[in-house]
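Newbie here. two chains, one complex. Structure please?
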Amino acid sequence: MIVISIALLAGCSGKSGSEAASASSTGTTEISLYTGGSLNVKELWETLIPEFEKANPTIKVKLVYLPSGTGGQSAVDRLLAAKQSGQQSVDVDLYEGSLDDMTRGNSQGIWAKLDSSAIPNLSNVDSNALKQANDMAVPYRASSVVLAYDSSRVSTPPKTADELYDWIRQHPGRFAYNDPATGGSGSSFVNTAIYNFLPADAMNSSDPSMAQKWDKGFNLLKELGPYMYQKGVYPKKNQGTLDLLASGEVDMIPAWSDMALEQLNKQLLPSTVKLAQIDPPFTGGPSYLLMPEMSTKKEAAEKLLNYVLTPEAQTIIVNKMYGYPGIKWDLMPKELQNQFASVSSGYRQFNSGDLQKEINQRWQSEVAGQ
Amino acid sequence: MSHSVKRGMLGLALVIPSFLILFVVVILPILYAVQESLIDQNSGEFGLGNYIRMFTEPAMRTNIIYTLNVTLVSTVIALLVSYALAVYLRFGKGWMARWINRLYFIPMFVPGVIATYGLITLYSNHGWMARLLLLIGIDTFPKIIYSYSGLLLANLWFNIPFATMLLSSALAAVPNSVVESARDAGASSLQLFFRFILPLSYKTMWVALTFIFMGIIGSFTAPFLIGANSPQVLGVAMQQVFSNYQETHTASAMAVFMFLLCSVMGYFYIRTMGQDLDKQS
C-alpha cells in the first residue's frame, strides 16, 4: 500500500504549474523556468530572477519549482509526451536538470542546440563541458563531494585516497560515510573507492560488464567497515554524517561542498571544521540548464541563459549555493577564488547510469550486511 | 413501493459512498499491489518468483526475521508497560498518579520525525544522556541509537501512550463495587487482576495489541533514522527496493507479505469482537 501511495503522489504532483502563462499583450514576454532540487535552489532563483528582470524589463520569468522527489522527472516526461503527441508548443521554456535528462530527451530531439551567437556568454563556459552535453545543456553551477574534517582534532588531513584509507584504519570509529542509497556524499565515497582501482574513463561507462571489476573496491570497503563509526554504522542522508561531525562523534566525513560551506556559514558546524579535496578527487557534478526545442520564446530564454553565465550572476550563485561556478574560475572575482581555493581543485564525474543502482544494492548486501 | 423496500434503498444509498471510497482507496490498491507482486521482477513472467526470492535470499530473510523480532518484542513490552500503567492510574491515588494521568499522552502529539530526532539527541553516543552520566563519572554509555535497542525505545515511545489511553478507558468501566466486593471476599491483588480486571478489559487489550502490532510492523520514520544499516525492518527495506533499486514488483511482494501479517492480526481481532457480539445477542 505504501508503494501505491508513493506512485499516486508522484502522479499527482506533475500537474502543478501546468497553467503557465503565455506572452501577454503589453509587449512583455513571460517565460517559465522549471527547476527542482533542495530549497536553496529555489532561493537562488528568487534572487537571480529579479536582477535579470531589472536589466530586461520586457521579460518576466515565472519560476516553477518542483521540490526534489516530487515531480522533477515528470517535466521531462511531459516534454517527451508533448513531442510524441505532435504538439506544436510547450509551456516549459527553460529546464534545470542533469546530464541524464539531456541524454533521455536527446533521442527524441526535445532539446534545442545552444548557440553562442545567441548566447555570447557561452564562451565563458569550459568548451569540453559543453561538448560533453552535446551543446544542448549548459552547466551553470556545480558542487562536489569533499573531505570535511575537524581541524582541532585532525592536524594533517590526508592528501590522497590511500592516505585517507590509512587514516581511517589508524583512527577506528572516527570516520563515517552515509548509506550510499540515501545521499550523494556517501555514494561518492563508495564510488571512488571502487573506481580508483579501475582506469579513469571507467567512470563514464554504463556497460554492465563493468560490474565484474568491482571486487577489489568492495573488498576495500568491507575491510574498512570495522574501522567506521561504531564499527560500521552508516547514517542515513547527507545530513546524517554532518550531524555526527557537528556533535564531535566523528572527526572526518565526506560531504557535499555546498552543504558543508553553507552550514559553516550558518554556524551549524563548528568553525574548526575545514574542507579539503583528496587526490584522486571525490565525485561531483554540475547542474544544467536546458532549453526545450518546442519553446516558443527561445529569444527571451536565451537572454536569461546569457545573464546566468555572466560573472555577476555567477558570483551570486557561488555565494548563495556555496558551489562551483558554471563558468571558468579565472573569470570570477579574485576574493572568491581565494575563498574557494581549498575545494576548487576539481572533482570527477560519475556517469554510469543504472550501474549506480547496482553498486548500492551490492553495498547493502556485502558491506552493510557483512 | 413498499415501506421496507424504500428503507432498504435508503440504507443502500447511505452505504454506497463509504463503500466506493473504501473500494477506490483500499480495495483497488490492494488488488493492484497483489497483481504487481505476481509479476516476476527479473523475468517479467507471471508467477511467485518475487515471493520465492524474498524467502530464499539471505539478506531479505534476515530482514523479515528481524522485523518480526522487533515487532513482537516491542508489542509485548509496550502492552505490559501500558497495562501496568493503566492499572496504576486506575487504582493509584496521590499526586504521582494524578500527574502521570495528565501527562502520559503527550508523546501522541509529538510528530514522529521530531520525536525520532529527539531520541537521537538524547540517547546518541555524545547525546545529553551520555553527557549527564559523564558528569557523575560514568563514561561508558551503551550503544542505543543505530541499533536494536534504539528501535525498541522508539517503538515504546510511540505506542505506550495510545495503548495506555485505550486500556485506561476500559479499566475506568470496571465498577468499583466489583473490586471492593472481591477484596472483601479476600482476593489478593494478583487474583483480583487475573480473575476480574483482565477478563473485564480483555477485549480492549486485543484492540490495543492489534494497533500496536500494526503500527510497529509498518513503521518507517524511526527505523529509517535510528535503525541499523543491516538488517533493516521491512518498511525501510521496502522503500529502498522501491525507490533506490526501482524494483516495483519486489517491493509490491513485500507490501503484500506485510499486509498478510497484519491480516493475521486482524483476523484474531475480528474473531474476538465477533465472539463478544455472539455473547450479547
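Moderator note: Chain B has twelve helices and no strands. Chain B touches chain A through 34 residues (CB under 8 Å). Thread marked as resolved.
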